[in-house]
Amino acid sequence: MLAAKGQSVDSVYNQYLDFNLARFQGQQDKAFVLGENLIPLADKLPEKARISFCFSIGKMYDDDSQPDKALPFYEKVAAAVPNYYVVHRALGYLYLDKARLIEDKINAGTSDKAGADSLRAVYVKLGRIILPHLEKAQACDPSDDTLDIIKTLYKKLNDTQGLATLDDRLKRLSATCVDVLNDN
Predict the structure, then answer these.
(1) Cβ-proximal residues to 61 (8 Å cutoff; 6+ apart), any chain
(2) pLDDT tens-digit readout, 157-178
(3) Model confidence pLDDT, tens digit, residues 103-126
(4) Position 3 confidence tier, pLDDT thresholds 50, 70, 90
(5) What is the pLDDT of residue 110?
């Protein structure tokens, strides 16, 4: 931690540039090392560069099948740039994968009613997390598959009101789409 405090802003930004260069040159192993070394220093990056870094490192983890490492970085991006639909699509699908695992456990059955109720509560909670993310993605970059998932999820959650107001929500969300992060 002391090393992180001793780094100058210029030095940290140069490390960020090296990280991006490695990614763009397809040097994934090098990019992972540079990115992971940069994580504790990221707060020294200018805000837009920090957001871009969070998305990039999240995407690397996502592409490397490490969703639990990707999620916190994607969440930071979504909080900082709430209309960046690309990160919402990623979050929606990562959380959907978690919900599907829970659904598989529910469908496998359990002899314990309390356990089944607990699983159902987790599934509903995940569904409530997934829907806003997928709706933002759908509003900005329509996809029949995503729309089907959204509608199916509303039905599984028994949320007829949410399903009934979906079109209006999608129209409203489509007015504020951001599709590119700028790190300058």
Answers:
(1) 67, 69, 70, 73
(2) 999 999 999 999 999 999 999 9
(3) 999 888 765 888 888 999 999 999
(4) very low
(5) 65
**Residue 19, burial from CB neighbour count under 10 angstroms (0-12, 13-18, 19+):** buried
Inter-residue contact 17 to 39 (CB < 8 Å): no
Compute CA distances 37 → 3, 30, 57, whole Å.
Answer: 11, 11, 11
| Cα–Cα distance for residue pair 137/125, rounded to 1 Å | 19
- Backbone angles phi and psi of 30, in degrees to 5: -65, -40
Instruction: Extract the tokens encoding 71.
Output: 């999620």
- Whether the pLDDT of residue 1 is over 80: the answer is no
Do residues 41 and 15 lie in contact, with contact meaning Cβ atoms separated by under 8 Å?
yes
Q: Which of 69, 57, 68, 70 is nearest to 28 (CA)?
A: 57
Q: If we measure between CA atoms, which residue out of 126, 49, 139 comes closest to residue 85?
A: 139
Cα 153 to Cα 96: distance, rounded to the nearest angstrom: 10
The rounded distance, in Å, linking the Cα atoms of 53 and 17 is 10
Instruction: Tell me if residue 46 falls in helix, strand or coil.
Output: coil
The reported pLDDT for the residue numbered 23 is 95
Q: Which residue has the tokens 């089944």?
A: 116
